[in-house]
Amino acid sequence: MKIHVLTLFPEMLKEFFQSSMIGRAVQKGILSLHAVDVRGYSLDKHKKVDDYPYGGGAGMLMQAQPVFDAWKDVTGGGRVRTVYVTPQGIPFTQRMAEELAKEEELVFLCGHYEGIDQRVLEETVTDYVSIGDYVLTGGELPAMVMIDAVGRLIPGVLGNDSSAEEESFYNDLLEYPQYSRPEIWHDKKVPDVLLSGDHRKISQWRLEQSRRRTAQIRPDLYAKYERRQELIGRLMKDKRNYIHMIESLRRGRAEILFWEGDDILLYDRRCVTCMISASCREAGRRMLDLIPGETRSVVASQAFLNELFCGSGHSGADGSGGGEVPEAARICSQFEIHSECSQLLYTQKTPLPVQHKDIRLLTMDQLDYVSERYSYDGRSYVEARIREGVMYGAFVEGEQVGFIGMHSEGSLGLLYVEEAYRRHGIARSLEAYMINRTLEKGWTPYGHVMVGNEGSFALQEKMGLYRSDRTVWWLERK
Ligand code: ADE
Hints:
Layout: E1 2-7, H1 11-18, H2 20-28, E2 32-37, E3 50-51, E4 61-62, H3 64-75, E5 81-91, H4 94-100, E6 105-110, H5 118-124, E7 127-130, H6 140-151, H7 163-166, E8 184-185, E9 188-189, H8 199-217, H9 219-235, H10 239-250, E10 254-260, E11 263-268, E12 273-277, H11 281-288, E13 297-301, H12 302-309, H13 326-334, E14 335-345, E15 359-361, H14 367-373, H15 379-387, E16 391-396, E17 399-406, E18 412-417, H16 426-440, E19 446-450, H17 454-462, E20 466-477
Adenine binds at residues 85-87, 130-132, 134-136, 139, 142.
């Protein structure tokens, strides 16, 4: 990722760019950071960049010209996400950090004095963001806060892959207390359970501590957590048909946009995907109105589509036709049906044997190979999967012969094996490998297989996966 910071005080950022995790990411070439001195773009002979505000008032304003020229120089005038850090912005959150971490290039614009001429903001800024309800003397510190929060989410920046997933604000819980050597300090002993070596007990203790802490310090977060747990509990009664929702909630990805009885609408902001299940047409209609405008995909449970399409002129989930159903027309005008899938889930906790030994994490070096062979989604989708560190390849004598991965919403898929290497157990090994990686994270592995793909069903069932008795429909934005 490339980040440019437009500032009057580039020296404030230099140390930050070279230190700690961010500094290491820069050295590894994962991040490239540039402090751009706006003063260098001033056309004034004294390099002045500020002037009095029209209409009077305290202080000086940064003028439009040097800011615009600096911005144009780094972006080429293109559509690069440009964040103006300002107390007038929307509050910065972990969610926003996750969203910004998906960009390839970002610009941060730091104000000073009393702000920046409105006209240049209108021409350059895409996001107005504040780090809190207090006023600082300039935007450099807030920009560093945001770069730190965004930077550490980029795959490869943190040494340990799971550390970003485990801490505060994932799963709506604050992190548990941590201890290091010595075992006793100031007469205080490390809790016994942490020295027990019993990982199950340690996890339970940590969860309990997280819950207590959150309930005490952040009752607002705790209420969200409890509601999510309640919904997971309910969905677990029909695990096979709701595994996509259960895992999305458990992994801290989905937020609940609507839930009343069996009517559920979840939203995974990171992959702009909704998951929907409705018990009747009225509920379906209400939830349709709640689908966020930017949603790219909808995973609709069969019951929901039956309700909407049954008796409609459109060919629906059950292929029925007939009279007009306005809701069906409404969803059809925005989304098209991409596929009908059964869900398959691996409910055991034990890892599977992996026969084929040469399976490795893929890097950008294999992007061409994968995108040329995986035709369902575009190259940028495959690129993002590799960048997230969730694609693995099978190799024979150094040559790649297949791959597998995790889709953006969390299901296993993207499976491919070269024609010449089929029936050699490679697909099975790739899948077992991927299942084991998923189990290591404490998740339930699941996948979506298109109805009709009998070869895949046979493989999944041979490996011990269970099949849902109802299907889900993937709808894609037109
Ligand atoms: N600039 C000055 N104060 C700020 C704040 N609280 N957030 C973002 N930018 C700022």
